[in-house]
Amino acid sequence: MDTETSSDTVTGTRTSGSATADTRDASALDPRDVAAATAELQTDTTAESSPQTPSPTTEIVAEEPTLVPVDGETPKEPDGTDISTPPTDLVVAPGTKPDIETRPLAHTTSGSPSTTTTTPEASTPESPEPSTSEVAEDSPIAPEIEQAHQPVSPPPPPRVHRSNPIAGLIAIPVAAVVAVPAVISKVISAIMSPLLAPGTPAAPPFLWNVLTWAVREIQNTFFNRRPQVVAQTIDLSLDAGQVSGPISFGGFDPDGNPVTYTVSTPAHGVLTVDQQTGQFTYTLTDPGYTGTDQFTVTISDAGPHLHGLHGYVTNHSSSAVITLNITTSNHAPIAVPDSVTTDWNTPVTFSVTDNDSDPDGDPLTVISYTDPAHGTLFHHGDGTFTYTPNVDFYGEDEFTYTISDEYGLAAATKSTFTVIRGQIHLQAEDDEVTLEEDSTTTIEVLANDTEGDTGGVHIVAVTSPANGTVTLNADNTLTYQPAADYNGEDSFSYTVIDAAGNTSTATVSLTITPVNDAPVVISAPTVTMDEDGVASGIVTAVDADVDDTLTYSIGSPPQHGVVVIDGVTGAFTYIPNLDHNGVDSFGVSVTDSAGESTTVIVSVTIHPVDDPPPTSTTTVVLLEDGTATGDLVPIKVDADGEHVMLHSIDGHAVASTGLTTITTQHGVLTVSSDGHFTYTPNANSTETDALTYEVIDVAGNRSTSTITFHIQPVNDAPVAFDDVYTPASPPVLIGMHSVTFTGNVLNNDSDVDTPRSALTAVLVGQPTSSQVLGLDLDGIEHFELRDDGSFEITGLVLGSLIGLITPVTWTFTYQVSDGEAFSDVATATIRWV
């Protein structure tokens, strides 16, 4: 057959590991497309036998759909269109190649698939040789298809679902099954045609699309792809028993099938797998382990599949090695107590770190230690010590040391020494004793002596101290008493002997500390004095401590007087309470520089005397025009029990009986001999009266006192007097006329405490007019009374036949005010005559 075949290249690209699963439903194929495919198959033989003009072919890049798992439902477009039917009407304009995206599913941590886009080059129909196509593993190849005469938009990318073999069989369209043999024949013809002769395409585009769809359905249904997992290296910081956080295996299944994880056992820990989340946790079980641990994880899918030869070859699981880099935290070292034994008076060298350890193997260093109680300790710097027990010490001793690793973690423990006793000899040890001046102390000198192995130790001799005495007691104690008032240093020695006759001598050193001596009062007077007098004296004291300074003060005050004392000399002055007689006392304290004090009581005897009557100064305040009463002799009996009476006032004798009236400068005073008085100031007086008076007791003793009367002013109301005015009649004609009169009502009014210029006139009653010729005429036309008392009045009058005003009277009433009080009501009268 003489035909031309296009040499355009067909290329398909798919990301490794992604799956292509077409979810198109066979029932969704348009019957018209199936009928068209059948018709083309029936006429294909004729087309092949007839020579045709070569038509340009178009290279198609097959699209790999994005894996979008859905639960077995037929996917829909957003407008509800069923997209499970394979494309039947993809048409490309002559001489062009479409750009079709290939969207393989790639596993990422975010769950978003990666996208690869492939754009084919323009076709080259002149080349008779076919170009080589590079096709990724398992990727379908879109065959060359015939051009259609009406271009349409490419269909939306197909979606995938989890394959079901039974549904896949049912989904294959009947027309597609019938057309498969013819399609296969056409494919073979298409492949061989470039080698034989130019010719027309083997089959129309629809059949290629049906074949592509069928291949996809078969692949997705019968060829399951294995799940994937990748190797990982993970850093963990754990201590023994600690559990890591959840860690993802990173596995996935390209077909979206459920997967199961199986792990091997790691060497240094335990794994816990969560099948739902695909995560695991690791628990370190090897204490202190640092290094690498590994295990293998195998991922297997669990989907229902009909596995063909491909499935048996590729298997359905994947494995990967998970490597764990494990580090642990630093641990504190372990300090173990040491026990060292030596003979007395024999040093011993030992190492404290030999039995200590560090869980991490870190080098250890001694950073501190304490001193033992019964020996000396020397550290050589490398963890070894030399212990030297005290002379003749035996028994147990100890010290504490602290070790540290190179990271600063430390531990402490205690080391014990056992010093083995040797032979003990008698040894008297020196003693040091401190006591206060003028005190006595008993000393157990044998308490610190070493008795020795023979026993029977007692004191056989004591020397005499230079500044005191010492006594040997029956119980082998010594009693020391310093000389009186001595302070300073003293000493003596004693000798002890044991049962074997061995002796030893020691010295007792004494320190006598000074004590303060209290002052001593050598003179304290007894005071005798008269009532209401003043007594003086001096208290004298000495102190055995010559460097002390003495200070005098009142230690206890007197009950019936007051006393003051000179703090340096001890001189005092005592004043008894007024009119007190009898006995009293007070204490005087003498204090030295050290605060030591001595108190002496000073006794006072007060003789009674005859006292004059008491005096007083009295001030009486009363109001103007008021009256004051009182008593000039409030104390009727004086301190001596004598009756007191009023004797005179301002030189005027007061009668022993009855009342005496005395006229003062500003008033009148009426008094009686018992002191009661009544004082009346002069009218409107606001002055002050000061009077001197004398009282006397029955013994004739007199005293003088004063009394002052302060008269406070009060406001007096103004006094208003009636006013009468008789103005002369002006010449008038017969008939009614208006006349005016002016005056001042305050001209004759007064106020005793307010000047007239400060007074104010206040209208009380409006002016009225009297009858004229028997007629009751209201003739007042205008009236004004001012604050200063001036007024103006205008009224109607009647002119008579003689040319004068017919007599008429105008009146009004008013009061006068001084700002605080008002006068009585006064009347002002104006008579026209």
TrEMBL record:
<feature type="region of interest" description="Disordered">
    <location>
        <begin position="1"/>
        <end position="138"/>
    </location>
</feature>
<feature type="compositionally biased region" description="Low complexity">
    <location>
        <begin position="108"/>
        <end position="134"/>
    </location>
</feature>
<dbReference type="GO" id="GO:0016020">
    <property type="term" value="C:membrane"/>
</dbReference>
<dbReference type="GO" id="GO:0007156">
    <property type="term" value="P:homophilic cell adhesion via plasma membrane adhesion molecules"/>
</dbReference>
<feature type="compositionally biased region" description="Polar residues">
    <location>
        <begin position="1"/>
        <end position="21"/>
    </location>
</feature>
<feature type="compositionally biased region" description="Polar residues">
    <location>
        <begin position="40"/>
        <end position="58"/>
    </location>
</feature>
<feature type="compositionally biased region" description="Basic and acidic residues">
    <location>
        <begin position="22"/>
        <end position="33"/>
    </location>
</feature>
<protein>
    <submittedName>
        <fullName>Uncharacterized protein</fullName>
    </submittedName>
</protein>
<dbReference type="InterPro" id="IPR002126">
    <property type="entry name" value="Cadherin-like_dom"/>
</dbReference>
<dbReference type="InterPro" id="IPR015919">
    <property type="entry name" value="Cadherin-like_sf"/>
</dbReference>
<dbReference type="Pfam" id="PF17963">
    <property type="entry name" value="Big_9"/>
</dbReference>
<dbReference type="InterPro" id="IPR010221">
    <property type="entry name" value="VCBS_dom"/>
</dbReference>
<dbReference type="GO" id="GO:0005509">
    <property type="term" value="F:calcium ion binding"/>
</dbReference>
